[in-house]
Structure formats: C-alpha cells, structure tokens
Amino acid sequence: MPNSTPLSSDVLLTYGGVTQKFEKGSVIYYEGDIPIFLYQVIEGEVKLISTSPDGKEFIQDIFCPGDTLGEPALLLGEPYVCTAQASSKSVVIKLSKERFLNLLCDSPDIVTKLLFAFARRIYSKMLSTQMLLETSSEDKIKAFFNQFKTACSAIDRAEVLIPYTRQQIADFTGLRVETVIRTLTRMNKEAKVSIINRKVYY
Amino acid sequence: MPNSTPLSSDVLLTYGGVTQKFEKGSVIYYEGDIPIFLYQVIEGEVKLISTSPDGKEFIQDIFCPGDTLGEPALLLGEPYVCTAQASSKSVVIKLSKERFLNLLCDSPDIVTKLLFAFARRIYSKMLSTQMLLETSSEDKIKAFFNQFKTACSAIDRAEVLIPYTRQQIADFTGLRVETVIRTLTRMNKEAKVSIINRKVYY
DNA sequence: CGGTTACTTGACTAGCTTCAAGCCTTGTGG
DNA sequence: CCACAAGGCTTGAAGCTAGTCAAGTAACCG
Fold it and tell me: Which ranges constitute the DSSP H helices of B71-153?
C-alpha cells in the first residue's frame, strides 16, 4: 500500500532535514513515543507494526521511498500508535516538527498534496478495516489480495504474483501462518488462486 | 469518534451547499457509488457501515453535527467503501465536488483544517485496526472501550458509562451480540467492568 | 397494556489456533 | 562442489473460542 509522494526530499533538506540510515530490523520510533520528527523514506522500506503482548506482530502499513510517515501523530501531538521498523536497510530523512510546520505555512501547495495523500490513506485504511471484518480466513485473504491488486492498479482479471511470504500475509490479515497455508492450499485446489513453485498468483 | 469541525456550515451554504433531511435509517450514499457531493452533518447522526454478504452490519465510523463525510473517496474519485446511513433523523448539507474544490482553492486555511481533521481520522483508524487485530473478544471490547474513553478524554482511572447497546458494541468490534453479552458478564464477575441496571461502566 | 426493542441463556458446531514435528529451498563457507 | 545452516513452507492432531440457532425474559414507550 504505497502512498503518493507529496513531498520532494529536496524541500525537506532545504528546510533542515537530516538523513539517517537504519539497518534491517532497527526501529525508527516506538509505539507510545511522543513524536518529534517527520520522517520520509528515501531508500529501502519501513513498516508500521503493532505488537501484541504475546509477541505477535501485525503489519499496519508499509512505506516505500517517497512516502512520509508518522505525520498524523506528529500533527496531533499524540503518542505513536505503532512502531516504525525498517524492513530492509533504509535511508530516511527526518525533519523537526517545528520546521515541518514552517514548511506547511510557507507552501499551501504542499498542504494540498498532503491532504490528498491523507485521503488515500484513509481510503485504504477503510478497505483494510473491511478486510479484518471478514469472518472467514478465505475472505480475509481475498480482500487482502484485492487491496494489493488495486494498490498496484492491476487489471482485475489477470493473475498477479503476490510478492509476500505466508508469514507476511498472516501479519497483514491477523491470521496464523498455518491458517494462511491451509487456506491457500484449499483455494489452489478450488482454482481460486494458483500456486506455482510455492509462489501465489491471484 | 467524532471528528473536529473544519468547515462552518455558513461557508458551505455560501458556496452553494443545499440542505437535505434524512429519516432514521435512510441512506445518504451506498457502498460502490461514485461520489458526487461533499456532505456535512448539521443535525442528527450519520454512520458509515459495511454490510457483509450475509447481511451483517459493521460500523466503521459515526459522524456528528459539524463533521464532514465522504471526502476521501470524493477527492480521490474512487467509489465509496461504505454506506452512509442516518442513525437518527438528520439534516445534512451537500455541496458538489466542483464547488468543494473551488472552496479548497480559495481558502488554504480550510485545507489546513481539513488536513488536521484527516490526521485525527487516520489516527483513530489505526487505533481501531489494533482493536480488530486483538485475538480475544475481551481484548477487543477493552480496546473499544479505551478508544471511547480517549475520544471523550475521560481520565483512565474513573469508570465511565459506556453509552452503547450490546448490539452496537458488537457492530463496532465485529463480534456477535451473544459473544459481547457473555464476555461482558464474565468481565463483570472478574471485576473488569461494572454492570449496573444493564448499563456498562468501564 | 400491548408491542417493540434490548438483553440473556443454553446447546451445538465450525473453524481458527496451538503445538509439535518434519520437509524443501536458498545461500554461504570450507 | 558439497555440506550444512537458516528461513520459509507444510502437515497432523487436539483444543478452545466465537459463531449459530433457538427460545425466552426484562425494560421501555406509546
């Protein structure tokens, strides 16, 4: 679910943004932290995860180069709901809240772009809420796949490679790996997905 | 989960907004419709619901007087994810997309306010995603109650009346009424909630 | 007082989770 | 080029929790 790109990194750097590298698995901010910076992904991939008390992990969102993250909590001054973690070696620009607000004041244009990016995010959160409300594992997985296909604007008919591991599908849908595997196997038999070399096409 | 109020109804009327009444239960727009108007609630209450194929109903959001609704889909030009339905007799202003866009162009101020309202909405959607990812019915209900308490900025300690019916709690959490009842009864025995005259305090 | 709405309880079932074990594939170092 | 480690995938058996269906009770309102 990549978001659109409302902010050029150049602007962020002009306003005093600083780049920082993160190794795979290292944390950019923790759930509960009070936001100080705006972040933008330059290279790599950053995921937003909720961890439940028993150590289970759920992926709330994934951010790609160009995407900004953490703005809602930053703007509201509320603690982060999720932890942001680099899912691969990543480069991130961070900009202090004060400078970010200056930037917003100076450029109504950017505010509008951000507004559209937020609209996109609300929209996809509503879709993912619908996914989580599905009662059967099959419907959840199908909803997840459909979201992915819409996000990368794939034609509905053509089968597309789902570039996620079983574990990642589980982390997105809130199911267990075994359930994902068993459901996919069944769906394969019923020709609802294709599994070739363990890769899933839908 | 009421949102802040970025738009005064006066401005909407100035830009050509038209008021319309809706009886309790009547639909403002349907899931799948292509958005044409921006809506603002003036009186009453409007809920956003997803209906699953078997007729079950899930409440995605509730809007109170002053709140605008349907902007994400409208701005993106995508079909509505949910159905908007008046949960009580309501009055709503509707403004055509074109005029809404004019309004945004004319008033950077309003764009900024909308941005903050969107931030609030993303934030609360993340919280509700976390709620849905909880595995047990008890944790879901507790997460829902906590969301409610935060929304009305209740002090965490004090017990607060939860102003929802069992059915509504079920519709928000994605559980069944019977499950909600059984879980609440158990939580009452374990002193995790208080039930007095069938009313729930948490 | 009668009808509607909300709440409650019980018995049964289905489906997801859990735990445990084993297999396949990929990449790395000797 | 082989061996082995590590991560991902798969399978089976058992348990438990939420869902379903059915029936009935309590509160509310005109």
Answer: 71-76, 97-106, 108-133, 137-151
